[in-house]
């Protein structure tokens, strides 16, 4: 499959860079083609401008400011979102990508004012994240990142995409052994993606 890999971490030396590399190796082992979209390295601007918001419903002109990202999404058959959880949310750059790229006419269509799923070509989705705190605190906060991946993306794919979510909780206290085990698990899951 053609996999669009959305990577959202600013530090090349981060544990997330190791996650990215392990995941891409697993995808390579499975024979998938990977389009790495490193949002920070590409200088993606997460801010939805006033002009973009005014033209939000003007299909197809609404895609012009982010046309390359829309094209990459439309060419993909699968998505992987790889990100740290910060303040129990998605990093601003990834949330901004969703705000600016998952547009009317792209991820959904409006029919008589009702949003209908439009990412029907996406067959598989995986979210890969780390949390600084234990799982129970994420549950207490409602775990918005998990819901964004497993619920929102399910809606805009009309429930057709198989969705997996891989998380390393309590990252601030994770031992080298636990981090290595997570990398191995991610690589193995991606090799079966």
Q: How is the secondary structure organized here?
A:
Elements (H helix, E strand, L loop, with lengths): L1 E6 L7 H15 L3 E6 L11 H5 L12 H9 L2 E7 L7 H10 L6 E4 L2 E4 L6 E7 L4 H6 L3 H13 L5 E7 L7 H16 L2
Parallel strand pairs: 1-2, 1-3, 3-6, 6-7
Antiparallel strand pairs: 4-5
Helix pairs in contact: 1-7
Keywords: Oxidoreductase
Pfam families: Flavodoxin_2
InterPro entries: Flavodoxin_fold, NAD(P)H_dehydrogenase_qn
Q: Can you walk through the features of this model?
A:
The protein is α/β, with parallel strands linked by helices. 38% of the residues lie in helices and 21% in strands. It contains 7 helices and 7 strands; from the N terminus they run βαβααβαβββααβα. It has helices at residues 15-29, 50-54, 67-75, 92-101, 135-140, 144-156, 176-191; strands spanning 2-7, 33-38, 78-84, 108-111, 114-117, 124-130, 162-168. The strands form 2 sheets. A 5-stranded parallel sheet has the order 2-1-3-6-7, sandwiched between helices. Strands 4-5 form a two-stranded antiparallel ribbon. α1 (15-29) links the parallel β1 (2-7) and β2. α1 (15-29) packs parallel to α7 (176-191).
